[in-house]
Amino acid sequence: MTIVRDRIALAELKNLANQMFGDYVKAVVDIGRGIMAVGGELHADEEALLLEDGSEQKDLWGINIHPDAAPEHRVEFDSVINLRPCHDNRTRGVDSPELRQRIIALVNQLVAP
């Protein structure tokens, strides 16, 4: 697992995908700090890594990144860590359109073509 603080090459994400799940990489983004963790077997593993690094739970969201997809279809919102009824997120996705856009913008900023 790796914490991406600056940028990660798309080719590196493709390599991680090939090693783990084939066509996607699990990631957890920290919208507060503008970083993400990638390469874990479970979103919970990446979440724990970011929490140990100083992230706050409320800022962490699990996604899948499909490196071979077009940028507008690259991010998939599906993770058990996103189930947060106390924060009005009642699905494995990200229910807030505004929050989804913030996450997509962060991923686009951190993933180098």
Could you give a short description of this structure?
31% of the residues lie in helices and 22% in strands. It is built from three helices and seven strands; from the N terminus they run ββαββαββαβ. The protein has a five-stranded antiparallel beta sheet with strand order 1-4-3-5-6, with helices on both faces. A two-stranded parallel sheet has the order 2-7.
List the helices and strands and how they pair.
Elements: E1 2-4, E2 8-9, H1 10-20, E3 25-30, E4 35-38, H2 43-52, E5 60-65, E6 75-76, H3 97-110, E7 111-112
Q: Helical content, roughly?
A: 25-40%
Largest sheet: 5 strands, antiparallel
Ends apart, CA distance between termini:
20 Å
Shape estimate: globular
Q: Please report which band the strand proportion falls in: under 5%, 5-15%, 15-25%, 25-35%, 35-45% or over 45%.
A: 15-25%
Oligomer: single chain
Q: What are the low-pLDDT stretches, counting only 5+ consecutive residues below 50?
A: none
Query: What average pLDDT do the residues reach?
Result: 96
Run of helices and strands: EEHEEHEEHE
Structural description of this entry:
The longest helix is centred in the C-terminal third of the chain and has 14 residues. The radius of gyration is 13 Å and the shape is globular. It has one domain. It is 31% helix and 22% strand. A 5-stranded antiparallel beta sheet has the order 1-4-3-5-6, with helices on both faces. It starts with a strand and ends with a strand. The model has no long low-confidence stretch (mean pLDDT 96). It contains 3 helices and 7 strands. A hairpin with a 4-residue loop joins strand 3 and strand 4. The chain has 113 residues and is α+β, with helices and mostly antiparallel strands.
